[in-house]
Write a structure and sequence with these properties.
about 550 residues, mainly beta, Maltoporin, Chain A, 21-stranded antiparallel β-sheet, four-stranded mixed β-sheet, 4 helices, about 5% helix, globular
């Protein structure tokens, strides 16, 4: 770890936040805010005269980030219309941060950014959310939600972008007693996104728009206090700029059967439809040797999923909780994947591109066990354990779905390891655990763990990209990853811990540590995760 150290000061994070709420007659007020400074754990790139980039030559202090946010909410209950509630909430945030595309190398430079592989960003986000709800005399509930969102990202290397989003949703909900409490939900929603960015000029213009209109409905019924049945339908319409239109209808349904008190069986089926975003179709940008490439012909992704699950509650003396086990299967058509390749070396040597890679499926099992033990009236222990296993497979491994300047792309010839037909960058096994002891309302201590198994497969082009940058005769900084992948990609167990003490009812102090063993680990190629952090927190209620 000492050889990886790039800082000569104290890498720290500090911040403050507050929340105030009160009720005055028929008004509810909430006001909150926060500020945060993060020293950063990735150091600045080492300047390279061969790289022309506006984000290359700066000092380590540019790798810190700052954030300031304010939020409010006002809700009003008209005294003469008791069933009506309306209000306005909002949020404003200013932040200065950075985006690191890759590490400098996979040894001593793992905590430094690759030369030319950093984007500095000044971001402003403002949203205003008006809403209204009304209960009719017959038991119906009308809800109207809306949002006006503005985002402005001032970024180096000609990456700046602005977006405005207008969202509205109307929903009606009612249970019909004459139909044995059949619950009915229906609604309409709309989202309009207006984007202005050279970043998305793959469409031929920096100005792009995406309109989504949808209508939905759902029926839900409890039969003989045992079986709950639900069925839903949604119709979607999309329009991208003035040239691309698409629509889809999707359904979902579910059953939940109560065998005994605390014992339930459930089954569900649902369809999915994902229309590519403006970024997925039209992003075209480069930073140093890296690029992200546009794909205007990207097609929508369709899917369906099935799940069957069992939940058992239990209570043995003062020990209580539940055990939940579910199996699932997801099937995809026109799977959208983010693939690395040599798409256009005249623009950038190599980089990522969104592509339709054919049919795929994901099968898996998800298990969770939670419990609480009341030792006595003043002491208790609670825990939750979760395990997830997935088997993500390509179903058309020989399908040619793309071509770059080097070769054609199918799953088989673009994968580093295609023997199991596993989709790239996935973890087959993941595990989580959290245990906490609490005494009265004043003292608590807890520990949590996360485990991710090794990445089984990735793009072969990453290996080729490393070879290409190694064989430039010193004219380009090598991009190194494969040695780390082959020797350190063995799964990662991350431990966190916390302890807190509350005194005089209004005051609380806490020490919170993440990655307490200070492991150096990576969950995606060319990016290292944060090292150990230890945070002291003090809070007071006034």
């Amino acid at each position: 770890m000492k050889t990886m150290k790039w800082w000569d000061d104290h890498p720290y994070i500090h911040g403050a936040n507050f929340l105030h709420s009160r009720k005055i007659k028929n008004f509810d007020f909430v006001l909150g805010g926060m500020m945060n400074f993060d020293h950063g754990y990735i150091g600045a790139p080492i300047a390279d005269p061969l790289v022309v980039d506006t984000a290359t030559n700066f000092s380590d202090n540019k790798m810190s980030s700052e954030k300031v946010r304010m939020n409010f909410s006002v809700r009003y209950h008209p005294p003469k219309v008791e069933r009506l509630v309306f209000g306005l909430s909002g949020n404003a945030m200013i932040s200065n941060t950075n985006m690191v595309l890759a590490w400098l190398n996979d040894t001593a430079g793992i905590y430094r950014a690759y030369t030319g592989g950093v984007i500095l960003q000044d971001q402003t986000i403002v949203n205003i959310d008006p809403y209204l709800s009304f209960f009719s005399k017959k038991g119906g509930k009308h809800m109207l939600k809306s949002r006006l969102l503005y985002t402005n990202n001032e970024m180096t290397n000609n990456q700046s972008n602005q977006a405005k989003v207008y969202y509205g949703d109307y929903q009606f909900k009612r249970a019909y007693k004459k139909l044995q409490d059949l619950e009915f939900i229906c609604g309409v929603s709309s989202t309009l996104t207006l984007s202005e960015a050279q970043l998305y000029s793959g469409s031929g213009s920096p100005n792009n728009s995406l309109l989504n209109l949808s209508g939905y409905s759902q029926l839900e019924k409890l039969i003989k206090e045992k079986l709950r049945v639900s069925f839903g339908y949604r119709a979607e319409y999309y329009k991208l700029n003035d040239s691309i239109e698409n629509s889809a209808s999707i359904i979902r349904g579910g059953l939940n059967y109560k065998i005994t008190e605390g014992t339930n069986l459930r089954m569900s089926f649902g369809q999915g439809y994902r229309f590519p975003t403006i970024a997925e179709r039209f992003i075209k940008t480069s930073v140093g040797s890296f690029g992200v490439f546009d794909n205007p012909n990207l097609q929508p992704e369709r899917s369906w999923n099935m799940e069957a699950g069992f939940r058992q509650g239990y209570k043995i003396g003062e020990f209580m909780g539940y055990l939940d086990v579910a199996v699932f299967k997801q099937s995809y058509i026109n799977t959208i994947e983010y693939l690395f390749g040599f798409w256009d070396p005249s623009f950038a040597l190599a980089g990522f591109k969104f592509l339709n890679t054919g049919k795929s499926e994901v099968k898996g099992v998800d298990c969770s066990w939670a419990g609480k033990l009341n030792i006595n009236s003043k002491n208790k222990i609670q825990f939750i354990i979760g395990y997830n296993y997935i088997l993500p497979k390509a179903l058309e491994p020989d399908l040619i779905f793309a071509e770059d300047v080097v070769h054609e792309y199918s799953y088989n010839n673009s994968s580093l390891d295609s023997t199991q037909r596993l989709l790239k960058y996935r973890f087959k096994h993941s595990f989580k655990f959290d245990l906490e002891y609490k005494r009265k309302d004043d003292f608590a201590i807890g520990v949590s763990a996360k485990y991710f198994s090794r990445i089984e497969n990735l793009d072969r082009s990453i290996e080729e990209f490393e070879s290409a940058t190694l064989n430039t005769g010193g004219t380009l900084q090598p991009v190194l990853y494969m040695d780390y992948f082959n020797n350190s990609n063995n799964g990662n167990l991350i431990l966190d811990a916390r302890v807190s003490y509350q005194f005089r009812k209004l005051h609380k102090v806490a020490i919170i540590s993440s990655n307490i063993l200070n492991r150096t680990f990576s969950l995606r190629p060319l990016k290292v995760e944060p090292m150990r952090t230890i945070m002291f927190q003090y809070s007071v209620s006034i």
